[in-house]
Fold:
Amino acid sequence: MSQQISKTVMIGKPAPELEVAHWVQGDPVNISALKGRVVLVEVFQVNCPGCFVHALPQVVHLHERYEAQGLTVIGLATAFEDFDKNTLANLERLVQTGDMIGEPLRQLGKAGLLQSGRLDYSLPFAVGMDVLSENDAVVDDAAVNTLIHGQLPDFDSWPDERKQPIYAKARAYLEAKTHRAHTFESYGLQGTPSSILIDRDGILLEVSFGYVKPLEPMIKDLLQRAIG
Structure:
């Protein structure tokens, strides 16, 4: 779960700048400096198995195929949970050596997708770490309900037996949320992996969560368009 604003109000408007605490690979860059290029920001967590199995391999393919045609890919590591694992130090180790930790190490290793505990591919684009700040928000019924209704608008119509575990999970999430991830929240992301697609004019076109929508057709179309 995550606290978020509605991304639907942002689509079609200038994309917010990324808030990056540290660039672990590549030169510092941001949305406003990339006008004229199509931008794909892939948001992931170091402790996210699906990010490494599905999303990041797709993004590496897109970078390699379309970078010369005007696509800029940025990898942004964030942390909205498991704050002891989704750290800058673990991100730096991942980028520098391919070393995995936590659930990705366990799950990808079990599936035979690692070589000596390391990824068998590298990230060939700029990679930064989201800005994290201490979270001092009060966890009360109002906060829990705001979180739930942001993701489940029809929650009030659910029967009590379905509500109770969701409510308990939401409260536990908020109580364990020691930090706020700035870019993650400014884009209203639901989780990781998430893809942020921005056109040549810096306009936000797509925010998707999970491996649910092929990005390549959209990117090919955007690369063929002139700047507005």
About this structure: The chain has one domain: 7-137+177-208. The longest helix spans residues 49-66.
